[in-house]
């Protein structure tokens, strides 16, 4: 049911009495045991939602719809130009496969509370595996396929999965990426060893199976179907790892109950989608956006989701997203600004878009990184529909700022702004002392506790880090790590991270982690990694390194070594391609590297030298070095005008 309320009234009600507001939303779902209590605190003092409720997310996503007239409706449309495949699964078909696969998982010992890591591209079998884990009360953790074995190994050791489900490989443009050898390498590096690896064999890249440990995905699908197990609302549905400010990723936990309530609400209020309508989210199931709006949100709402295996360009061309919209009757499309920039670069006049009938599209939603106004305006003019930039994080799992097109009296979206606080979020901009700042003043973006349902209740195995990283800095608030401001009319602008996290093509990376890798090179004395502006990807990391005394390695040879190390340790997705050797790094007198000043220098931004700088002359040296290597917006020879 679509909430027939004004935005202002809905937002106010959600803050005035969060428990009553969300309990009413919760009662719109088919619980096994409906909750009587909305909000409580656990032994750590952390907020928990719907503690005494029981439900199962897989049941809500599949069984419920099959039982209520949607058995023959398409649930999932798989469209893969890279493998030249298109397949549609009805709700009944998806349920059948999921229930069987859950039976197969149970037969190999996966049960309630067990972790299962998934390392697959955007294929239907990945969704089936996610839903099958949910069905058993097992906890899945999808790891993005672009991560290298050491990153996968860290996640294996943290999650300690009973099984890993992987594809034999994926397809990047026309290049085959074998995944199975990466999984084998990760397992050999990890201390914890999963009992089984379930392999989805793809005909273009068959993988060798290790007898005893490895199983064929199709064999598990032969099992008898099993029913959904009711689980406590607070039971984890999944863990999704995201970059923190160190080399150790954070395992964001999502629970069954709050997640289902929040996503169902968002599908109606934010995206204005009715059951039976089609959404296409151009992301990857390894990111929060994909998990929430390729998989769970659409299925919870009884919508049809388009699962796309490919890229916005060159698979086969920059019209591929528009073909999906036209051919699959897409009402709402969601992607990252990088994807739109990539399309715009290859088809600036929108010639390909005009080949398709896009009249069915109602809205384009963007998130994952700041959307520059030029990209925003281009998309809006091309598509002739409202473009909604909205802001969220892996931690929240659903938007915190948006234009809620399903509510009445919503102020229209504006280029550069991520909109207004979503119901449930008491968003504040704070100064360094934790005091709210006046309109127009930039500060730290924070949310007053309690966070609404759907947001992470803690980090996997690390309550202390949850408290220290997010809650302790400003008691009573969740600190997002982003900076921004609110204007006099209430529009909020997210301006970027205030910590050591950068955003590369909508992917979140830790500069601290890259620095750890560079610093491990025998020739490197010290280093700084900056996220500098990039026309396509928003930001890309660049290393500035100082050599140890007596080191004679050439700059290009060192760059090659370091680029290879980052690729090997983190993965190609880091897009780490440039290294600058400097004589010294700019520092404060107390020895802190002035990373922000370096980044501003590379981006050609005006900046004031901190009064605490040790030696201001270093800035001129580095400016000369950047120019010499053509690194940075201010110095690149092919810099766009
Ligand atoms: N598996 C294996 N490798 C992967 C991968 C995956 N799932 N995803 C990316 N990579 C590799 C790429 O092949 C590339 O490798 P290369 O350096 O050997 O060429 C590298 O990681 C960088 O990838 P990417 O930044 O994606 O560059 P690209 O040239 O392949 O594509 C875009 C550029 C803009 C088309 C692409 O970044 C894109 O579609 N962005 C949309 C962003 C998005 O969906 N974000 C999700 C958050 S909402
Ligand atoms: P992730 O957890 O990978 O989804 O990344 C979350 C981060 O991406 C946020 O902390 C922001 O820095 C950035 N981000 C996401 N959406 C937006 C947006 N609409 N505008 C600006 N930044 C965004």
UniProtKB/TrEMBL annotation:
> Where is the AMP-binding enzyme C-terminal domain positioned along the sequence?
513-592
Residue ranges annotated for the Acetyl-coenzyme A synthetase N-terminal domain, each copy included: 7-61
Q: Which InterPro entries match?
A: ACAS_N, AMP-bd_C, AMP-bd_C_sf, AMP-binding_CS, AMP-dep_synth/lig_dom, ANL_N_sf
Which Pfam families does the record match to this protein? ACAS_N (PF16177), AMP-binding (PF00501), AMP-binding_C (PF13193)
- Residues in domain AMP-dependent synthetase/ligase? 69-449
Q: Which GO terms describe its molecular function?
A: propionate-CoA ligase activity
What residue range is the signal peptide?
A: none
Where does the source fall among the domains of life? Bacteria
Family membership, please give it.
Belongs to the ATP-dependent AMP-binding enzyme family.
Name-wise, this protein is AMP-binding protein
């Amino acid at each position: 049911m679509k909430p027939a309320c004004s935005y202002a009234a809905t937002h106010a009600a959600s803050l005035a009495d969060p428990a009553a507001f969300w309990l009413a939303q919760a009662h719109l779902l088919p619980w096994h045991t409906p909750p009587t209590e909305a909000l409580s605190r656990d032994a750590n003092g952390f907020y928990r939602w719907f503690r005494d409720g029981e439900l199962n997310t897989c049941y809500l996503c599949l069984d419920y719809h099959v039982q209520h007239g949607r058995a023959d409706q398409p649930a999932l449309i798989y469209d893969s130009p890279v493998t030249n495949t298109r397949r549609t699964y009805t709700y009944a078909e998806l349920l059948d496969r999921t229930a069987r696969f859950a039976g197969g998982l149970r037969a190999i010992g996966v049960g309630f509370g067990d972790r299962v890591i998934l390392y697959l591209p955007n294929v239907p079998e990945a969704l089936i595996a996610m839903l099958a884990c949910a069905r058993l009360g097992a906890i899945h953790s999808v790891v993005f396929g672009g991560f290298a074995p050491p990153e996968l190994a860290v996640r294996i050791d943290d999650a300690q999965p009973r099984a890993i489900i992987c594809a034999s490989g994926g397809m990047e443009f026309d290049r085959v990426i074998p995944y199975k050898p990466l999984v084998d390498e990760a397992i050999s590096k990890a201390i914890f060893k999963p009992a089984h690896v379930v392999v989805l064999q793809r005909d273009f890249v068959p993988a060798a199976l290790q007898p005893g440990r490895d199983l064929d995905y199709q064999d598990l699908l032969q099992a008898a179907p099993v029913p959904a197990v009711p689980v406590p609302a607070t039971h984890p549905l999944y863990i999704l790892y995201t970059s923190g400010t160190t080399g150790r990723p954070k395992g964001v936990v999502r629970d069954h109950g709050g997640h289902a309530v929040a996503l169902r609400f968002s599908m109606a209020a934010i995206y204005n989608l009715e059951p039976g309508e089609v959404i296409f989210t151009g992301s990857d199931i390894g990111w929060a956006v994909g998990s929430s709006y390729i998989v769970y949100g659409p299925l919870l709402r009884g919508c049809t989701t388009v699962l796309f295996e490919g890229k916005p360009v060159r698979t086969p061309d920059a019209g591929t997203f528009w073909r999906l919209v036209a051919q699959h009757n897409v009402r709402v499309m969601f992607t990252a600004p990088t994807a739109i920039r990539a399309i715009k670069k290859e088809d600036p006049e929108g010639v390909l878009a005009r080949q398709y009938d896009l009249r069915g599209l109602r809205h384009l939603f963007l998130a994952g990184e700041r959307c520059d106004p030029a990209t925003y305006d281009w998309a809006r003019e091309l598509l002739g529909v409202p473009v909604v930039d909205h802001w969220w994080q892996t931690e929240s799992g659903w938007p915190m700022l948006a234009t809620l097109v399903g509510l009445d009296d919503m102020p229209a979206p504006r280029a550069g702004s991520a909109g207004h606080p979503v119901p449930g979020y008491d968003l504040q901009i704070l100064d360094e002392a934790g005091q709210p700042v006046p309109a127009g003043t930039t500060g730290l973006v924070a949310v007053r506790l309690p966070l609404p349902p759907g947001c992470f209740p803690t980090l996997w195995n690390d309550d202390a880090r949850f408290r220290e990283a997010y809650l302790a800095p400003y008691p009573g608030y969740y600190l997002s790590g982003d900076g921004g401001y609110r204007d006099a009319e209430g529009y909020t602008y997210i301006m970027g991270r205030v910590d050591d996290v950068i955003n590369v093509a909508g992917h979140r990376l830790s500069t601290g982690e890259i620095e750890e890798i560079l610093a491990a090179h025998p020739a490197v004395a010290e280093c700084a990694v900056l996220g500098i502006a990039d026309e396509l990807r928003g930001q890309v990391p660049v290393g500035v390194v100082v050599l140890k005394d007596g080191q004679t390695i050439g700059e290009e040879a060192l760059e090659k070594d370091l680029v290879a190390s980052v690729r090997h340790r983190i993965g190609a997705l880091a897009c780490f391609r440039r290294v600058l050797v400097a004589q010294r790094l700019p520092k404060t007198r107390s020895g802190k590297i002035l990373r922000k000043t370096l980044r501003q220098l590379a981006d050609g931004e005006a900046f004031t030298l901190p009064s605490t700088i040790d030696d201001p002359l270093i800035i001129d040296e580095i400016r000369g070095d950047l120019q010499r290597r053509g690194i940075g917006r201010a110095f690149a020879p092919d810099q766009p005008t």
